[in-house]
Amino acid sequence: LCAGLIAEAQRRGSLAAWAGLGGSAFYPPDFSAAGVDLAALPVIRTADVRGLWRACDTLLRSGGFELIVADV
């Protein structure tokens, strides 16, 4: 579901990002198969939930992203 939303945002020319903990469910081959341009997708991995929310806050405040996935 998330990969499809990211691919849709990218097709519209919008930026999307993935933020998750170190062992998150992000698996690049699956996202690529769903049509996600991996070269255009920032992936942030953090060691703890606090760092994850801090990363999401920074991305949101930038105003540059239409979609930010927080994989908790």
Model description:
With 72 residues, this protein is an alpha/beta fold. It has a three-stranded parallel sheet, sandwiched between helices. It starts with a helix and ends with a strand. The mean pLDDT is 95. Helix content is 42%, strand content 21%.
Please identify the oligomeric state: single chain
Shape: flat
**Poorly predicted tracts of residues:** none
Number of strands: 3
Report on the biggest sheet. Answer: 3 strands, parallel
Strand order of the largest sheet: 2-1-3
Key features?
alpha/beta; about 70 residues
What is this entry, summarized?
This protein is 42% helix and 21% strand. With 72 residues, it is of the alpha/beta class.
Question: How would the blueprint of this fold be written?
Answer:
Blueprint: H1 2-11, E1 16-21, H2 28-33, E2 43-46, H3 49-62, E3 67-71
Parallel strand pairs: 1-2, 1-3
